[in-house]
Model the fold of this input.
Amino acid sequence: MFINHMVGMFYHPKEEWGTIHEERYSVVHIFFAQISILALIPAVCMYIGTTQVGWTITGDNYVKLATGSALPAALASYFACWVAVAFIAYSIHWMEKTYGGHVALNECLILTTFTATPLFLSGLAALYPHLWFCVSIGLVALLYSVYLLFIGVPVIMEIPEDRAFFFSASILTVGLCTLVGMIVTCVILWDTVIPLNYIAP
Done:
């Protein structure tokens, strides 16, 4: 069923939001049947791409990571996705009454998870870790996630579209700040706690 919803989000997203809202997934189901799988995509692809293909900026001089270095980095990114989704969902739940929303935390988690699905899927680009290729795919995924957010908020949060627009803008701000925070945290961890060991070409 989750796969069907993912496909529907690309073909008829507005109708799919309504179907998802009617099913009332629990928090446990969302975390263990959805987020746990989606978060694997960027983590596993990053591990394969950095150890088997190698990073490059210009299209040549590929630099690979040692497997002993790439594995903890991939694990860290996996659990970082869990924390990021949980934080954004909690922030939505905390802000919702300001905009007239009165839904449960699981609905906020559903909104966060399905909105972020294109970003999780864009992790497939890490199989070919060319900098500009990954950045381009990531930007397209981000734009589509923003689109899903703006059409999903009035449906999932059960609020009028005029309030939903401003609520969506607030959620987008929280999401972008969280994304930047994840990137900064990863850079700090890679420089201190989990140093990256490169293999010369």
